[in-house]
Amino acid sequence: TGLSRPQRILKAVQKNATKGNPESVIAAIDHYCRHSEWAMNVGDEKGLILDSVVTEVNPSTALELGTYCGYSTVRIARLLSPGTKLITLEFNPDYAAIARQIIAYAGLQDKVILVEGPSGDLIPKMKQQHGIKSFDFVFLDHWKDRYVPDTKLLEECGLLRKGSVLLADNVICPGTPEYLKYVRNDPRYESRYFKSNLEYTKVEDGLEKSVFLG
Ligand SMILES: O=C(NC/C=C/[C@H]1O[C@@H](n2cnc3c(NCCO)ncnc32)[C@H](O)[C@@H]1O)c1cc(-c2ccc(F)cc2)cc(O)c1O
Ligand SMILES: [Mg+2]
């Protein structure tokens, strides 16, 4: 039945990007998804907001929920200081295999730890498996109905500290109403909405940045 969409995205990277050049990998995926076929990457517009928050936080420890093809993984990892790593969780082995190749093509394999499996099982293992005390930065971009349970799990596992920053994609489209209620009503969070557009479209979407106050 031919190639999958992630496989076609990988081919576009191999054809149009320069090995070891993360900017060219990002540009190749954005060009392909804007002009050939849409895919659920955070994209170039929301990607600039992601970049600015990652740069501001300059995290020593970072977590991404939902790798998919690794587009936002590359965006985040390219901005990390030397010696720091991004842990990204992906439970679909086919997507994980593509993401590994895209991350490697960007030359960022040494800055990324891609762990295959469901976040619900993996989050409680972060301390003992990866020596994580807490996460400075978390990017939520997996199933939208999992943002609240996984945020609560991060709290319960003691993986958030005073000042940890959560950045959530798609809070308008497809939408995460429960999550917005949670972080906007809980006094332990200071939240702010960054208005943007759904990747590669003119439809409104945005990112919610929430600082855990401890
Ligand atoms: O649905 C969207 N994203 C989901 C991402 C899922 C990826 O994350 C992986 N994943 C999911 N849950 C978990 C999990 N844990 C939870 C389960 O145990 N643990 C580990 N990995 C997980 C999947 O395997 C995928 O790789 C979306 C849609 C639109 C959209 C907008 C408008 C439209 F018209 C159509 C679509 C736009 C977007 O930017 C979007 O992000
Ligand atoms: Mg998304």
Overview of the molecule:
There is one protein chain. It is built from ten helices and seven strands. Helix 4 links the parallel strand 1 and strand 2. The termini are far apart. The chain has a seven-stranded mixed β-sheet, sandwiched between helices. Helices cover 44% and strands 23% of the residues. The relative contact order is 0.15. The protein has 214 residues and is α/β, with parallel strands linked by helices. It binds the ligand O=C(NC/C=C/[C@H]1O[C@@H](n2cnc3c(NCCO)ncnc32)[C@H](O)[C@@H]1O)c1cc(-c2ccc(F)cc2)cc(O)c1O and magnesium ion. The site of ligand 719 has 21 residues, from strand 2, helix 6 and helix 9.
Provide a quick synopsis of the model.
The protein is built from 10 helices and 7 strands.
The coarse silhouette is globular
Structural class: alpha/beta
What is the CA-atom radius of gyration, in angstroms?
A: 16 Å
Beta strand %:
15-25%
For the largest beta-sheet, the strand count, sense and barrel status come to: 7 strands, mixed
Could you tell me how far the N terminus lies from the C terminus, measured between alpha carbons in angstroms?
50 Å
The helix content is: 40-55%
Q: How many H/I helical runs?
A: 10
Strand line-up of the largest beta sheet: 3-2-1-4-5-7-6
Along the chain, the helix and strand elements come as HHHEHEHEHHEHEHHEE
Mean pLDDT: 98
Bound molecules: the ligand O=C(NC/C=C/[C@H]1O[C@@H](n2cnc3c(NCCO)ncnc32)[C@H](O)[C@@H]1O)c1cc(-c2ccc(F)cc2)cc(O)c1O, magnesium ion
Total strand segments: 7
Spans where pLDDT lies below 50 across 5 or more residues? none
